[in-house]
Design brief:
Strand content: 5-15%
Radius of gyration: 18 Å
Order of helices and strands: HEEHEHEHHEHEH
Helix content: 40-55%
CATH class: Alpha Beta
CATH topology: Rossmann fold
Shape: globular
Strand order of the largest sheet: 1-3-2-4-5-6
Number of strands: 6
CATH architecture: 3-Layer(aba) Sandwich
Structural class: alpha/beta
Distance between the termini: 49 Å
CATH superfamily: SGNH hydrolase
Number of domains: 1
C-alpha cells in the first residue's frame, strides 16, 4: 500500500510558478458578471407550507443570468410553488466559502426553516483548502442549521467539478479539479452518515455552451435543469405535511 500523496498534490510545488501565472491570467481575462437582480425572500405557491433556505456562493446568487427568476432560486421556487406554499429566503454572496456561512446567517438569525439547500465548495477548492479543516467547517455549518434554525432536511450540493470548467486552463483544471473531487468524495461520505441530509450530485452539463459567458457559472438553461432537479429532490424527501 502506497502512502504517497496523489500525483496532483506532489506536482503543486514544482508547478507553483506556472499555477500562479495562470491564476493571474485567468483573473485578468475573467468576465466579471453581477449577481442576479430580484427579490431574495418571499412567499409563493399554494398548498402545505414549506420554509426554505438557499445558502451559498455566486451560483446560489444567480451569477450568469440577469434576474433571480432565471437563477437557481427562481427555478426551484417555480416548481415547488405548484404544490406547496413556500416561505423562502436566499442568502448568497459571490466568493463565499464554507467558513463565511456562519456570518452570512446573521441576516436570517430570527428565522426557522424546514429545508436548507447548501451551495458551497468551489471557492474552497480554488483556494486548495485543507480537507480536514474544511470537512469540520462544513459539518459545523450543518449542525448549526439544525440546532439554531430548526432545519430537518439538508440538501448539500456537490463540490463542482472544476476539471470541466471552460474558464480554466488545463493545468488548473487538473490541479483544482482533482482537489475538488477529493473534497466532494469526503463531503458525500460525511453527509451519508447524517439523518435528514442528502448529497446532491451536480449531474449538469459543463460545456462552454451550457455555461454563462464567463465560462465559470451556469447559463439560464443549466440553472433551469439544476433548479428543477433540486425541487424534485426536495419534494421526494419532505413529507407533504411539512
Amino acid at each position: 500500500m502506497s502512502f504517497l500523496p496523489p500525483l496532483d498534490v506532489l506536482a503543486r510545488l514544482p508547478l507553483l510558478p506556472v499555477m500562479l501565472l495562470q491564476g493571474i491570467l485567468v483573473r485578468r481575462r475573467a468576465i466579471v458578471l453581477p449577481e442576479a437582480a430580484g427579490a431574495r425572500q418571499g412567499v409563493v405557491g399554494t398548498g402545505q407550507p414549506l420554509r426554505l433556505l438557499i445558502l451559498g456562493d455566486s451560483s446560489a446568487a444567480g451569477v450568469g443570468v440577469e434576474i433571480q427568476q432565471d437563477a437557481l432560486s427562481g427555478q426551484v421556487l417555480d416548481r415547488l410553488a405548484r404544490s406547496r406554499t413556500v416561505h423562502w429566503r436566499l442568502v448568497a454572496r459571490t466568493g463565499a466559502t464554507t467558513s463565511d456561512a456562519a456570518g452570512m446567517l446573521q441576516e436570517v438569525s430570527d428565522d426557522t426553516f424546514d429545508v436548507a439547500v447548501l451551495v458551497f465548495g468551489v471557492n474552497d477548492a480554488v483556494r486548495l483548502k485543507r480537507l480536514g479543516p474544511w470537512r469540520r467547517q462544513h459539518a459545523a455549518l450543518r449542525q448549526m442549521l439544525r440546532d439554531e434554525f430548526g432545519v430537518t432536511t439538508l440538501l448539500v450540493t456537490a463540490v463542482p467539478p472544476l476539471s470541466l470548467f471552460p474558464a480554466l486552463p488545463r493545468l488548473l483544471q487538473w490541479i483544482l479539479g482533482a482537489h475538488a473531487e477529493r473534497m466532494d468524495r469526503a463531503l458525500a461520505e460525511d453527509v451519508r452518515k447524517e439523518a435528514g441530509a442528502f448529497h446532491y450530485t451536480l449531474d449538469l452539463p459543463f460545456s462552454r455552451e451550457a455555461m454563462a459567458i464567463d465560462g465559470y457559472h451556469p447559463s439560464a438553461s443549466t440553472y433551469a435543469l439544476w433548479g428543477r432537479t433540486v425541487a424534485e429532490r426536495i419534494l421526494a424527501v419532505v413529507s407533504p405535511s411539512g
